[in-house]
C-alpha cells in the first residue's frame, strides 16, 4: 500500500498529461485519418494557443476566457491556412505534405519567437484553480483536476459528434468513401478543409488550457508533436476512445514511468511506437506473394530487365531526367560539377570552407536518403540513426588515440552497417507513410540513447576535446582548414563514386524494379526483401561515412547534430536533388547549409524562417527537384510519387 500511495500523485499527473495529449492528438488524428494530411505543423498550432494563453493570462477568469478565445481563434485560422496550403498536394502523397508542413512550422515558430521572445513564458491561472485539494490524503493541484474533467467531457462530446450527428457522418464518409460523399452532394475537399480547421482549433484550445502543464517555450511545439505522433500511432485512426487510452498510457509513461523506471522511460514510447508499426506493417503484408512459376522464371526476369532498363543501361526514371540532353553537354556538366568543389579552397575563407566541408558531410547523409527514398521506395526520416553511429564511433576512436582518417571511416561505416542490419528487418517490410513513422521512431530512439548514455556519449554536452583526425598514416594533425576540406572532399568523392557505380549497375536496375513493380518482381522469383535490405545496409554505410566526416570537420558532436531536424534537412536535400540523383542530393545539402548558416548570418535570428521558406519553395516549385528544371518532361513522366 505504501508503494501505491507514494506513486498516487505521479499517476494522476500522468492522467492529466495524457488527457492533454489526447486533446492535441485528436486533432492530428482527424487531420491524418480524414483529410489524409501528415501535419508536422500540429505542434506549432499547440504553441500558438499556449503563447496566446500565457500572454493574456492575468490570474482572472476573464483572462483565461480571453486567452482561450484568442488562442483557439488564431490556431483555427492557422489550421485553415494549412488546409489551403496542402490542398494542391492531395495527389502527391504524404512526403510532400510532411515537408511543406514542417517548413511552415519552422516559419511559424520563428514568428512566435520574434513576437514573444526565446524564454519560457509564465502562465497565471485563476486564483480558484491556483490551489490544491485533498485527494486520497494527498494535496493535488486543482487546475489539473479541472483539466481532467474538461478533457473527459471533450472526449465524450467529440465521440458523440462523430458518431451521432450528420456532420460526423460526413467526416467519416470523407475518410472511408469520398466518392460516395461526393455523390451525395457534399464536396470531400470542403470536408477535409473543415477538418483541418477544426483540428487547428482543438490544438489551439489545448495549448491555452495546457499551458500550465506544458508551458510555452521554443521547444514546446516539437515536444508536443512527437508525443502526439506516438499517441496517434498507438491509438490508431478509427476511434477517439482508442486515442484517449493511448494518450493516457503515454502520459503515464511520461510521469509515473519516470519515477518507477527512470532509465528505461525515455525509450519506452518510441520503442512501443516502432513495435506497433512493425506489427501492423507485417499484418498488412501477411498474405504471401504469388508463387513463381519455375518454367517461366528466366523469361520473366528477362522481361523485367527489359522493362526497367533503358538505353545505356539507365533505369527509365533516370532516362527521363537526361532525355534530350546531348552526351557532350552532359559530360561537360558533370565535369563542371566535379571541378566546382575542388576550387573552393582558393575562393573561400576558412569559415566558409568549413561550411563547405559540413555541406559535404550532410550531402552524403542526403545521398543515403536518396538511395532509400528514390531508388528503394522507402522514404525515411531516420537516417540520422546510422549517421549518429558513425559520428560517435569516430569521436570515440579519436578519443582512444585512433586518429588515422581511413581507419575512422572504415570503422564508422562498419558500425553503421551493423546497425542497419539490426533495424533493417523492421523497415523493409513496410511501405509509404509507415516507413516514415518507423524510421522516425528508430531515429528518435537513437537520439534519446545518445542523449542518455552520458558516460559514453557525453550526454547533451556531447563529445569534444579529442585529437584531430590525421588525413593519412603519419601525416599528423591538419595544419589548416584547407587540409581538412581536401580530406573530406576526397572521402566524399570516393563514397559517391562507389554509390553511383552500384546504382548504375544491374543492382540499381533491380532496385528500380522492386520500387515500381514489386508484385511482378516477386512473381518472377526475385528476392525483393534481399534487394531492399542491401539498399538499407548500403545507405547505412553511406550515412556512417557522413557521420565520420562530420566529426572530422567539426571536432565535436552532440545530440543536436543527429536529431529530427537534421533528418528533415537530409530528406529535403534529397528532394531538391530529384530523389534519384545522389549528386543532386549533395547540391541540395549545400543549398541548405548556405541558407541555414550563411544567409542566417546576414539576417541574424531568421535562420529557421529562411529554411522554412526553402522547404515551401521546394515542395511547390520543384515537384521533380532541380533536375526537373533542366529536363524536358515527357508525356506521362510523373512528378514525385506519393508515399502512401
Most strands sheet:
2 strands, antiparallel
Q: What are the segments in which pLDDT stays under 50 over at least 5 consecutive residues? A: 1-5, 285-323, 632-639
Q: How many individual helices?
A: 28
What is the CATH class of the largest domain?
Mainly Alpha
Integer-rounded radius of gyration? 26 Å
CATH-scheme architecture of the largest domain: Orthogonal Bundle
As a percent range, the share of helical residues equals over 70%
CATH topology of the largest domain: ABC transporter involved in vitamin B12 uptake, BtuC
Instruction: Write down how many β-strands occur, each being a DSSP E stretch of 2 or more residues.
Output: 4
- Computed structural class: mainly alpha
The tally of structural domains comes to: 2
Keywords:
two-stranded antiparallel sheet, disordered N terminus, cell membrane, ABC transporter involved in vitamin B12 uptake, BtuC, 2% strand, 644 residues, 72% helix, LivM-like, 28 helices, ABC_transp_permease, ABC transporter permease, transmembrane helix, mainly alpha, 2 domains
Describe it.
With 644 residues, this protein is mostly helical. It folds into two domains: 2-258, no CATH class; 336-630, Orthogonal Bundle (ABC transporter involved in vitamin B12 uptake, BtuC), CATH 1.10.3470. It has helices spanning 2-6, 8-33, 42-56, 61-86, 93-116, 142-164, 166-176, 178-183, 188-210, 220-235, 240-260, 265-284, 297-308, 316-322, 327-342, 350-375, 384-399, 405-428, 433-452, 454-457, 481-503, 506-516, 518-523, 528-554, 564-576, 582-602, 607-621, 627-630; strands spanning 132-135, 138-141, 463-464, 556-557. It has a two-stranded antiparallel sheet with strand order 1-2. Strand 1 and strand 2 form a beta hairpin. The relative contact order is 0.12. Mean pLDDT is 82; it is low at 1-5, 285-323 and 632-639.
